[in-house]
Write a structure and sequence with these properties.
- The protein is α+β, with helices and mostly antiparallel strands.
- Strand 3 and strand 4 form a beta hairpin.
- It is globular.
Length: 113
Amino acid sequence: MITYWHYPKCSKSRAGLALIKERGVQVQTRIYLEDAPSVEELKAVQAALAVPVVEMMRTGEKAFKELGLTKDSPEEDLLAAMAAHPILIERPIAVKGGKAVIGRPTEAIEALL
């Protein structure tokens, strides 16, 4: 079972979901803008991604700058910002077991299939 943090308006997110379904893998879709993850969930996914917190963020989003964040901001501040403003979370993210990938490019999801 893959848990998929999905943004239906994003073509990359739609493509990743289509790939998972095409392969016949069970998927639980989470519309993360409507059901924002908690700081604890974000920490767990960040650990599964094995990347710095900033690499799971959309740093080009207007909200990133409006909140006064930088790529050097403390990780706790970045996590809190993503929990409060889920638009800052890079999309899509697929999670299976203790591993996760950001679906950019879409083919990255293959690592979980």
